[in-house]
């Protein structure tokens, strides 16, 4: 029987203009969280989270108060709430990155929050300063809503997968650098020094992020060079036989260039049981990493 849970159809060519704009906007909001939160290992303090209405910073301590910034993809608003002020909102609509940046920081000041961020995006080329960016400006409410609902469904499966691991594991969180929703498991072993390579990311940040041995999986909505949404799973460090492991479902494959297993979102969406298919991908690719890297599974996995 066809699963009654409908996963949205994502067509990259229709999603791309809104995705490009949103990617810039979430970087701005993410950098506000980065600037104000105490450091957590592997940059966990910088991420956003999936909520019942969109994306959120969750509560950020600030000078004896807490503030929070939320993208609402039901009402298409950005909400700035603070423990000692009334909530202020901004319309999410077609507007330049520059316009979004200026209004957001103006409204933050009205709330008594004075923050300065590094004003260029990370993991994006070219890294145009937000204040000067008049290129990305499209916002289609329907596409934004579809992307959020997709991540909402994925978020649930990722949380279920995370619960089966009793070793160190990351939260399920949205990294604004690459715009990917991810969850990571750690073996407890140190990893070799990472060589970096991501655009506009300091080498020391990459090296701290990958200072420990990991198996990481996520969802990525795609790019111009890779124009379809995917699920991915990789190991760092990756053993030579990792790519040769049998994983599920049959439509999953290893991409040599990216160095990770890939499963197209459409193959999950079109299956009879998308949640089960996605879980199988997460579990089997984790096992590929754990087996080939000799993880201590007896003490890391829930019995």
Short note summarizing the structure:
With 303 residues, this protein is α+β, with helices and mostly antiparallel strands.
Explained architecture:
By secondary structure, the chain is α+β, with helices and mostly antiparallel strands. It folds into two domains: about 10-130; about 140-300. The chain has six helices and twelve strands. Strands 1, 2, 3, 4, 5 and 6 form a six-stranded antiparallel sheet that branches. Strands 7-8-9-10-12-11 form a six-stranded antiparallel sheet. Strand 11 (about 255) and strand 12 (about 260-265) form a beta hairpin. Helix 1 (about 10-35) crosses helix 3 and helix 3 (about 140-160) crosses helix 6 (about 275-290). The longest helix is centred in the N-terminal third of the chain and has 25 residues, at about 10-35. It is globular and about 55 Å long. The two termini are about 30 Å apart. About 35% of the residues are buried. It comes from Salegentibacter chungangensis. This is DUF5996 family protein. InterPro entries: DUF5996 (IPR046038).
